[in-house]
Write a structure and sequence with these properties.
2 copies of one chain form a homodimer.
Chain A: H1 29-34, E1 37-40, E2 43-47, H2 60-73, E3 80-88, E4 96-106, E5 110-119, E6 122-132, E7 140-141, E8 170-176, E9 193-199, H3 207-213, H4 221-224, E10 231-240, H5 244-250, E11 255-265, E12 268-276, E13 282-292
């Protein structure tokens, strides 16, 4: 993956990359997990997927994709998602849930969303999203993709070591900062993980899978504090740089994903992450706050 | 400012650092600007401040502080702010506005908020916030403060060059990436700005001023694309690392603030930023998506 040069945004990028996945979507395990069935205008019914189970409740990335899906499916949606913030307010219990999506304000080229996931009337997850019609402008990836061997030169992380179900839906090839072996866990100065990752089975990249991929990183405390102790994302914000053309070029190829914590203390740490794709272009960048014990 | 070593979280950090600023607050220009008067439970009335005027409407940082202030003032508030996302959905017109803050979910140690700023019933700004009771844990600033001369060794940015009012309320001492001189504007490979900054007149740091400081950076396109063209934050998320003890240690001293864009294209770029304080501890980190022309 080369360090990126400035590149113009290709023409035709105003074509919406986003089509929500509803009851009629094909049967990829990811699409099954984020499936929403309209109940009323802007209100959808979904169900947790055992395939994306985490320690407690679902994988945060699949919840993020589900929240975004609700806005994507909404008949008043404008353009493509540009930013998504998901707040994990409480646990999501196994079973059915309701997602309500409301366009709070629609401008000529941007649209702001409020999205709420609830179970039995109790809010479990909230989100805000910004959708926009992208325009042709000067373009460049300033934060270049870190050097990495080709995906097939990096060893696939052994899926039999997975402690949680959702990991089995990703092909992960760590370049550095792999999930540590609990028998040999030194405290590291640097919490960085760098990996090639894609859906397994492969699935063409779209904004929904991109926001899920932005949360595939295990807690940075595992590397820095050398402890496998409870930790969970409280809030994550993802900027989606990938337009329709970039997503189409990426297809099912693995993306290069990097995450690093910046500061720990008082029961929380933050994590900055980014995902690069074909030609070294940044596809998404994220910032999250994580609770840890 | 030394590179940080691991440091324990000081005792007593569960003391709330946060007291909202209401009508009775003292007359610092910042407190005047973010002042809110309760109208009904969770509903406050505020007014834009000419002192924090930007190109169009108020400085985004003062709006962020005002949104956070509404949650801080709310009688049901739990603990301190840990994360704030502010979405600039539309322009805020000069004059009065209403801010509604609602605790969406309150857990034992965390609380999630929805906050909405409106004028004449039209939503202009939305926000979500996470408050929490901080606990004593392992602590460390992994992303060290960049090397910088002492604040008094860096030249103060000449306030007479300010094109907008809000800049006059900050003492800015650029170490690199200063606001460019329009007569000599090369395109740079690196959009980084690094500066010492504090309120002017000095004001003891608190979560409200910290979220405002997290948005003091001019658009990264000014440096990278060498064009002073319209640009504005669409959404900003700030993780607040500073607890009460860290804020008290910081007092009115300048903080070291760094910002860099990561990728540009399709009319948007993202910006990662961080603020370090006394002893090199990270006080806050942010991620924003910016619209540009």
């Amino acid at each position: 993956m080369s360090a990126d040069a400035s590149r113009p945004t290709p023409a035709g990028t105003t074509v919406a990359a986003t089509t929500g996945r509803d009851g009629a979507a094909p049967g990829h395990v990811f699409d099954d997990a984020i499936r929403l069935v309209p109940e009323a205008p802007g209100v959808y019914r979904g169900e947790t997927s055992a395939a994306y189970g985490n320690m407690v409740g679902p994988f945060g990335g699949i919840t993020a994709a589900t929240m975004l899906n609700a806005a994507c499916l909404h008949p008043e949606r404008l353009g493509e998602p540009v930013s998504l913030t998901v707040n994990y307010a409480g646990p999501v219990a196994d079973g059915a849930f309701r997602v309500a999506a409301r366009p709070v304000r629609t401008n000529r080229a941007t649209q702001h969303w409020w999205i709420e996931l609830s179970q039995d009337g109790v809010v479990a997850t909230t989100a805000t999203a910004v959708f926009a019609i992208r325009r042709e402008t000067w373009a460049s990836t300033e934060a270049s993709a870190p050097p990495a061997p080709a995906p097939n030169e990096a060893e696939r992380w052994p899926i039999e070591r997975a402690r949680v179900a959702w990991v089995r839906n990703y092909e992960m090839r760590f370049v550095r900062g792999a999930f540590p072996d609990p028998r040999r866990m030194p405290m590291l100065d640097d919490s960085t993980s760098l990996l090639w990752v894609r859906d397994d089975p492969p699935r063409p990249l779209d904004p929904l899978s991109l926001v899920a991929l932005s949360d595939v990183f295990f807690p940075r405390t595992y590397l820095r504090a050398a402890q496998i102790a409870p930790a969970g994302t409280i809030t994550i914000t993802t900027t989606l740089h990938a337009d329709a053309a970039m997503l189409a070029r990426q297809g099912t190829q693995p993306v290069l994903a990097r995450a690093q914590a910046q500061a720990f203390g008082g029961g929380f740490f933050d994590q900055a992450s980014a995902i690069w794709g074909e030609g070294g272009a940044m596809l998404a960048s994220s910032h999250q706050t994580v609770y840890f014990k």
